[in-house]
Write a structure and sequence with these properties.
Layout (H helix, E strand, L loop, with lengths): L14 H4 L14 H10 L7 E4 L4 E4 L19 E2 L2 H15 L5 H13 L2 E2 L1 H7 L12 H6 L5 H19 L8 E5 L6 H9 L4 E2 L9 H5 L6 E4 L3 H5 L2 H9 L2 E4 L8 E4 L3 E6 L14 E5 L5 H21 L10 H12 L7 H9 L10 E5 L13 H4 L10 H13 L7 E2 L4 E4 L2 E4 L11 E5 L7
Parallel strand pairs: 1-4, 5-10, 5-11, 6-7, 7-10
Antiparallel strand pairs: 1-2, 2-3, 8-9, 12-16, 13-16, 14-15
Length: 459
């Protein structure tokens, strides 16, 4: 057999690696998967062409595959880019032409995917590896310079931890970080553009699905370093439980679209919210994961100028000191809790329930429980089939009256935030045993709830 020397090669194929090829009768190269892998690894025109992107978790091609004939135009770029069926077909055609190797489509595609997995790359890590910090500290003041935030310990801690967490997420995928800085400021200020500039448009995403429980929400995080929740839309559409579970997740487990098997992908991204609202937090038990950041302006030009040095410093800090990625208890932690409390959305039930509790809870029982009549909304649908006839809260018609009252009072009081304990409205403890508490007695007069007062003076 006459072996055609691949175009562009300086000399005939090296016998050192050609000896690795399995041959059949007459010395003909066998069109096997192992032979294709040898050629993909050693051929001068194919070597290093395919890779596995560990950031986006997909096969990529780094340069154009050899055209099927000499006068043909190479496949369009830009490169690197995700590998397509056309690329595998061009490589298969090249092997057939250059080595007289009748490779089947199945073997050719398997060889391309396997060869790519044997050569791994990570664009963000490689970019960070190429940065050199100039030694000037900027990490603690970048929020002040870029967004006009107060130059204080709280914003210094939030800014430094956010960037260090982003670096750690790509250096150690799946590391624990479930905090979300929320950039507050007028609409059109440029908060989103600043975040896109900070992370790079190729590694930035601002269209998170509104339902965080969907598979698309997790699958869409592949190849993304920074994720913006624009105007906190995803937070508003998802339940507090879904939001807490989503941000706390270190690994995403799902079956990819058109995939046959379930995969587990460690998180390599961080999240930031943007809003022009003053009150946007609704779950008192999950507020600690949100770090409010009040912005006066968005200096995108400053971020463009110092972006490389910001990330170089964050990478240096991660390599030398491993900064804690949470706000410690103390002065900074107290500022964070105060900022979070001030962003709580006040429920319409809060004032009447608070007033009733301040009166000492008329009707308090001997065991600390007390039946509190909940005020009804001013507007309510009328008619024999309306919510008033059924005794249901109009915003939650699937709940029975006591449950509706409990839900709203729980949100209104901010359990764990204003010093009042919660006692189950169905069961209460009595003499060490759980006794059923009847909540139907006050049904006609209005739904009732059960409280256990810890320290009324704190209200």
């Amino acid at each position: 057999m006459v072996v055609v020397t691949p175009a562009g090669a300086d000399a005939p194929a090296s016998p050192a690696w050609m000896d690795l090829l399995a041959r059949g009768a007459g010395g003909r190269i066998v069109p096997s998967l192992s032979n294709c892998l040898v050629l993909l690894r050693h051929d001068a025109r194919l070597r290093g062409m395919l890779a596995w992107d560990e950031f986006s978790c997909r096969h990529i091609i780094t340069r154009a595959a050899p055209p099927p004939y000499d006068s043909a135009q190479p496949a369009p770029g830009p490169y690197p880019r995700p590998m397509e069926d056309m690329d595998a077909a061009l490589i298969q055609a090249y092997l057939q032409r250059a080595y007289d190797l009748p490779v089947s489509r199945t073997v050719g595609e398997q060889a391309c995917r396997t060869a790519a997995m044997m050569r791994r790359t990570h664009p963000v890590r490689e970019w960070l590896d190429g940065l050199r910090w100039d030694g000037t500290p900027r990490l603690g003041a970048w929020l002040h310079h870029a967004l006009g935030c107060a130059d204080d310990a709280y914003h210094a801690a939030v800014g430094a931890r956010f960037l260090c967490a982003a670096v750690r997420r790509v250096r150690s995928p799946g590391c624990k970080f479930d905090y979300v800085p929320v950039l507050e400021g007028r609409q059109g200020m440029g908060k989103s553009r600043l975040l896109a500039t900070l992370f790079g448009t190729a590694w930035f995403k601002d269209d998170l699905p509104r339902d965080l429980g969907e598979k698309d929400a997790a699958q869409g995080l592949l190849g993304v370093w920074g994720v913006e929740m624009a105007e906190l839309q995803a937070l508003g559409r998802s339940s507090a439980r879904d939001a807490k579970a989503f941000f706390s997740r270190q690994h995403d487990r799902y079956r990819p679209t058109y995939g046959a098997f379930e995969v587990t992908r460690p998180r390599q991204c961080v999240f930031a919210g943007t809003t022009n609202e003053e009150e946007y937090l609704t779950d008192p038990t999950g507020n600690r994961r949100y770090w409010p950041v009040t912005c006066a302006h968005a200096d995108v030009a400053w971020v463009e100028k110092w972006r490389a040095q910001l990330w170089a410093e964050a990478d240096h800090v991660e390599a030398t000191s491993l900064m804690p990625l949470w706000l410690e208890n103390g002065h900074v932690g107290a500022i964070a809790r105060q900022a979070q409390d001030s962003r709580m959305h006040e429920d319409v039930w809060r004032d009447p329930v608070t007033a009733w509790l301040r009166m000492g809870g008329a009707g308090a029982g001997a065991h600390g429980g007390c039946a509190a009549p909940c005020p009804r909304p001013a507007a309510r649908p009328s008619g024999p089939h309306g919510a008033e006839a059924r005794g249901h809260h109009p915003a939650r018609p699937w709940l029975d009256p006591p449950q509706a009252a409990l839900r709203h009072v729980r949100a209104a009081m901010g359990v764990g935030r204003v010093g009042w304990g919660w006692e189950d409205a169905t069961f209460v403890k009595k003499d060490g045993a759980r006794k059923r508490l009847s909540v139907g007695a006050g049904y006609r007069a209005g739904p009732v709830v059960a409280f256990s007062a810890m320290d009324p003076s704190r209200l």
